[in-house]
Amino acid sequence: MAAPETSTAAVPTLYTNNTLRNAFGGVLSFFILLLIGVMAFSIRLFSVIKYESVIHEFDPYFNYRVTQFLAKNGIYEFWNWFDDRTWYPLGRVIGGTVYPGLTLTAGTIWWLLNSLNIPLSVETVCVFTAPIFSAFASWATFLLTKEVKGTGAGLTAAALLAMVPSYISRSVAGSYDNEAVAIFALIFTFYLYIKTLNTGSLFYATLNSIAYFYMVCSWGGYTFIINLIPMHVLLCIVTGRFSSRLYIAYAPLVVLGTLLAALVPVVGFNAVMTSEHFASFLVFIILHVVAFVYYIKGILSPKMFKVAVTLVVSVGLAVCCAVIAVLIALVASSPTKGWSGRSLSLLDPTYASKYIPIIASVSEHQPPTWPSYFMDINVLAFLVPAGIIACFSPLSDSSSFVVLYIATSVYFSGVMVRLMLVFAPAACITSGIALSQSFDVFTRSIKFQLPGISSNTEVDAAETSSATAEAQNDAVKTEKSEETSKNRPSKKSKKKEKEEKPSTKAKAEKRLLALPLDSSVISLLLLILLGAFYVVHCVWAAAEAYSAPSIVLTSRSHDGLHVFDDFREAYGWLRHNTDVDDKVASWWDYGYQTTAMANRTVIVDNNTWNNTHIATVGTAMSSPEKAAWEIFHSLDVKYVLVVFGGLVGYPSDDINKFLWMVRIGGGVFPHIKEPDYLRDGQYRIDSQATPTMLNCLMYKLSYYRFVETDGKGFDRVRQTEIGKKHFKLTHFEEVFTTHHWMVRIYKLKPPKNRIRGKTKKSKSKTSSTSSRGKRSGSGKKNPWQ
């Protein structure tokens, strides 16, 4: 009689304790997440604190210029904007060739702030967009990891992502590039997919399609999502994990997501016409075949089911074959079989170097070295394998997705260093799982073995709460049928014995799994020390390695800090000393900056959409002075800008990039041959350099008057004296050289006026040789050949 009353009286107290514990844990998790967001934002402000609030790198200047246009002229003018200051004389339709997600996001933030009477400039909003979205990305990582392995793993993964150097490198204050918002969109899309997979909610499936649409608007890397998710769906089908939740998670994404993606002008019909998207459609068909098989299995007898399965599989295979045949027919006419050049370079790492040198010439498209992994993810490289193992215990649909994500991202990061950015969230998620479960094992082992704590452990409380939950249900039944419970006390006692036995057995198993006390304490301290090393490395990377803007360079020597502001000095000179309609030629790396900071028309820029136009500039730089003058003059160029680092030791100058100009130019104009610029296969600029190298325009514009700096002409980047020291320019004149000689600007000399006497002589000579000229077919020489 007394036993049921005691257990019933104890239930509310235990239930209240668990409720308070959960509420306190939820509040604590919220404040930890808030602090993680503050940390993610703050650690990216070193560039502003140490230098100034300025846009970094090259591509961000184009994004900043587009955002300025959007804020000034509105959304409709943005979609219809034809930019005549780029790719002269072709121009560029901005609204149809740019991923608008970043621009629209920053423009919306600027509009909201100004609506609230917070008068921030467009530049300030652009500078701080990336740090803000890094905090959002950390919170999205928490949500994703929580769906996979719980709150503890989610908080750990969020903290790791907030300060991982690989992500910091593309999200510091001033790094106004597409990846600033795209990584958040990537992680959030994966979270909504896992959330839909766990709940089967059509609401989350719709949100998933909208998040995918935002990702498509933000970055071309959206193809990673639309290929990774179908791979996971196919994996679940093959391993016998098909469910209605899987169908709800995938089918709306393909249909609604593809329709929304086609609304983005830069994507358009590529969402259904390119090979990057075909895998999603094929898996979509397979999913429906499998779903139909499971449906008829529930309504037919086993005998009829075998017949129906044979029919369904036959029809499904026929449809798949027909779809594959149509896809093959669509892509057969394309030399790349419907794949973009960047996608082919990921599938075949040698493809770009063989066929598309413009892609291979970009430094961020090169494969990473082993030290770069330890620089960008540090100790996470050792924790990732442990996290993968933890995902298999137990293996669920969500944990299998994380394993697939880390496997594919590791491969792609090994092909292209830029995709370390995609690998970083996966590394943080798996490392967070590994750290969380390791802390759980070690702390549980310590609790079991410390005196006076083992009896009050959380494990015992959890087991008691599960037991009391059943007792509470029995208490409710007892209140409804009190007389029945009084007449059968023996059954209650038997049930109580059955509840106590599993609890005792579970505690015994937990104790057997506990590690020795010494090992647990030492391992826990080592994990804390490992985390401390990670924090120190991340802060150093944020403060020193990735905070310096490329537009302003610094170096330290025995006499202090030196600042090199040559780029802004050169662009300022162009803005104030040239006409508005003047055209400036340079290598494509500096096109965005020239247009945004100097407000002058450029021939090529960083969009690299027209390989022939870039090859034309490369050919001019690789040609002798007279031939180069003819090419630039035919393009209406008035100024030529070159970047030279030989005086101060700046390695990313045009001389080091020159061989790529030769390769890209030679790919379109065959008379440019790379061996002509090499001596025994070596690239040299000293006295052993080839005559073709010593007489090309790039060499002359870089080393003109260079011998006057030290009397020797010693190049600090190449660590040698130049081969040709004393020469004059006949078709170009130097108009400006920055303080540290890092940027040099030359003006094309006007064509010489014809002298009347010489004209008569030339006419007489021409008349005497006209018959020979006609027979030989000689005419005006094409300067590009």
Give a brief description.
It is an enzyme of class 2 (transferase). By secondary structure, the protein is mainly alpha-helical. Helices cover 66% and strands 5% of the residues.
Describe the structure.
Its cofactor is Mg(2+); Mn(2+). Residues 752-764 have a biased composition (Basic residues). It catalyses: a di-trans,poly-cis-dolichyl diphosphooligosaccharide + L-asparaginyl-[protein] = N(4)-(oligosaccharide-(1->4)-N-acetyl-beta-D-glucosaminyl-(1->4)-N-acetyl-beta-D-glucosaminyl)-L-asparaginyl-[protein] + a di-trans,poly-cis-dolichyl diphosphate + H(+). The chain crosses the membrane at residues 23-43, 93-113, 125-144, 150-168, 180-205, 211-235, 247-272, 278-296, 308-332, 377-395, 402-435, 521-543. By secondary structure, the chain is mainly α. Strands 6-5-7-11-10 form a 5-stranded mixed beta sheet, with helices on both faces. Helix 7 (122-149) packs antiparallel against helix 8. The longest helix is centred in the first third of the chain and has 41 residues, at 2-42. It is globular and about 95 Å long. The N and C termini lie far apart (106 Å).
Question: Key terms for this structure?
Answer:
785 residues, mainly alpha, 5-stranded mixed sheet, two-stranded antiparallel ribbon, 37 helices, 11 strands, 66% helix, disordered N terminus
